[in-house]
Amino acid sequence: MRIVHLTGSVTRSAGGLYYSVSGLSKALQQRGHDVTVVGASDANYEQDKGQWGDVPVIHSSASGYGFRRELLTKARALRPDVYHVQGIWSAVTVSGLWASRGQAGTVVSPRGMCDPWILARSPLRKKVHGALFERPLLRRSVAHALCESERISIAAYVPGTRIEVVPNGIDGGPAEAPDLSGKSGTLYLGRLHEKKQTVELVKAWEAGPGRRGEQLTIAGWGSPAYEEKLRKLVDEAPNVGFVGSAYGEAKASLLREARFFILPSLSEGLPMAVLEALSYGAIPIITDECNLPELIVDGTAISLREDLSNLDAIYLGQTKRSGSALTDHSAACMTRSEDYRWSAIAEKMEAIYEAAVEVAGRRG
After folding, report:
1. Same domain, yes or no: 346 and 317
2. For residue range 309-328, what is the model confidence (pLDDT) as tens digits?
3. Strand pairing of 186-192 and 260-263?
4. pTM check: above 0.85
5. d(CA 15, CA 73)
6. Distance between CA atoms of 89 and 125, rounded to whole angstroms?
7. What's the number of domains the chain is made of?
8. Vertex 213: Cα angle to 208 and 215 (nearest 5)
């Protein structure tokens, strides 16, 4: 099958989509599909292009909105069986709507962007943009939800849309198993944004006695204003460190060393960083809004209230556990991560692509 991924950015600027789209693309290619990625690039491309492996990437610099006519022309010339639209609320949706009017099937992955928290932000812009592009596109496509809660959000946004649920995946864990008994501290790794509550996390960290001596490491990037606000807080917090963006081996080292991984998010599709942390044996501390309820139910992850009111109780509880119990928990996290390998996810996505081709055939 010939598959074209339409994405807003082919560099780290895409955040989690940079890893999820590249991971899926490579896994589909390994399963024998003809896969191409089309999207905007920026100054990071030369440094970031290795993430795509052997997958062909058609790219060109574009505005923040992401529109570039030449990219649409090149995508059209590929004549794929399926266009997979990655994300919404940008020019990629315009491209997807154009693609849906041809003979190819279309799949849309909103990636959490139909979440009520997201829809409430800039509501007028989303009302207009959605009426012109997102709603018409979703009505003509098969929607891909990352979890059950996202399925519900998409169905509420565009009733009647066909929706299939398949989670994000991960490439795999470390090349060598880390020393799980030597892990320490807590890691936040990801975009620095108000919906992730990074600032609130630092404030709560220093407010409670349950984390005295427990080190929190913040790794990530965000808008200059938000990052500056965070840096000022960190400078006054003796048990918090900020290391900035982390990629490649630097990122792997942080995951390898962390005992806990924390994500106090208010809105997610399905966070790649949590799955990666699992594969390194970092115990997740996550809100319900991270949309990984199965990890909380089976005890792999620890449930964090969205207002962080039980943060202190969580760490007081963890200090009472033996070193061997924590090591066993870390090992269980690594085992659990096997359920999210890209090879398995790509196989499930194939069925969605076949469904999209059928829908396109009925459209005529």
Report:
1. no
2. 999 999 989 888 999 999 99
3. parallel
4. no
5. 26
6. 9
7. 2
8. 90
